[in-house]
Write a structure and sequence with these properties.
Elements (H helix, E strand, L loop, with lengths): L5 H4 L10 H4 L13 H9 L9 H4 L6 H9 L3 H9 L5 H7 L3 H4 L12 H15 L14 E5 L3 H12 L3 E6 L7 H4 L9 H13 L2 E4 L9 H7 L2 E4 L19 E3 H13 L13 E5 L3 H12 L4 E6 L26 H4 L3 E4 L1 E8 L5 E12 L2 E4 L5 E4 L2 E4 L12 H5 L22 E3 L2 H4 L4 H20 L18
Parallel strand pairs: 1-2, 1-4, 2-3, 4-14, 5-13, 6-7, 6-13, 7-8
Antiparallel strand pairs: 9-10, 10-11, 10-12
Length: 487
Amino acid sequence: MADPKGFLNHGREVAESRPVAERVKDWNEVYVPGSLLPIISKQASRCMDCGIPFCHNGCPLGNLIPEWNDYAYREDWSAAQERLHATNNFPEFTGRLCPAPCESACVLGINQPPVTIKNVEVSIIDKAWETGDVTPQIPERLSGKTVAVIGSGPAGLAAAQQLTRAGHTVAVYERADRVGGLLRYGIPEFKMEKRHINRRIEQMRAEGTRFRTGVEVGRDLKATDLKKRYDAVVIAVGSTTARDLPVPGRELRGVHQAMEYLPLANKVQEGDFVTPPISARGKHVVVIGGGDTGADCVGTAHRQGAASVTQLEIMPRPNEERHPVAQPWPTFPLLYKVTSAHEEGGERVYSVSTTHFEGDADGNVQWLHMSEVEFIEGKLTPKPGTERRIPAQLVTLAMGFTGPDKENGLTDQFGLELDERGNIARDADFRTNVPGVFVAGDAGRGQSLIVWAIAEGRSAARGADRYLTGASELPAPIRPTDRSLMV
């Protein structure tokens, strides 16, 4: 145990954020560089090394949290990063982007603020990169087997790295022009600078993983041809079919899906554009959807100089604290969150539904009409007399995703079976109905968290390795049927 009295002697401290007025003028990460390391040993000491560490149940990767907390407390950074990498290929991703279900399950959180597990995690891995402890793990021998991984998001990258280290020759196919999937083009730079992706890709290249960008399997390359080239295929294309809003005025210019808007902003940071083709500058922006993608749109609009930003959510505003009966510990509660983007301004409106959009004579959106809603007999129903309109010159739809892309031909060309939710069906080994073809991440699970995507990639890699060699020593942290610990 790190410090038997740590949780008594020290309160919870989190990463310090840069002032709003400063950070909205750039795209750098919102936190003050280096602000965590001076406090992280004390924060790690708050871990009680529980007899039954429920943080393990909260984390689908099975991260060895009490162990690397102890090493961080003792400032044994090399041992800490080894324990961290034992279960997680990319802790710098999860340490920045995961909503930390591990913290919701922290035993200390029963009656105190939980351990800052995410902050400890990101401190360990950032220190490891700084000291050179993160090095390529080149396999001792090659198996002679080949694997194609379709998609380079967190699930695809995790599967590719595991299979490469197992000795297989792995090629990752990505339809975008750069590797990273939603990590690259869906996550704004202020949440995770892309240098973190770039150095992981270089590590993977040094280990032997190959990358093929600008190739969309199903359109640019037939799935049947790909399967002939490789001994196994892992599909990790994500859940990219965005939920739409079929209301009058949807066709007006200025109404975009979030994943039309966010990638263009990221491409400016990559140097592809001087200014984004879709910009919030000087406009009244409305974001429809109250989740993380919506918050990303809010923060992006702030940095582009929006005149105003309003975020709409059809559900009621969540509670600010865990309800002991409805959302008991150690479940992952749905709580009211104030992200860094929300700290920067804008208005959040709950329990409202968009009825239609109104445009000008040139076909550009100008107004959004909405009404309040309430639950009546279990259904969200408009409240009479609450209709109103707000200015909207740019609207982004961030209402979630409904499954993998079915229009590019990939699922049909492989002959894949789908489950009742439209995701790619798989068995206990993450195998599809097609021999040698596996599926990992949101394409099989449905829209989920980054930590689940990495766990899926690791588990699917074990299934593919066992298919190729008859046995596998790779870890499989989850089963396809496992779900978050929620009520």
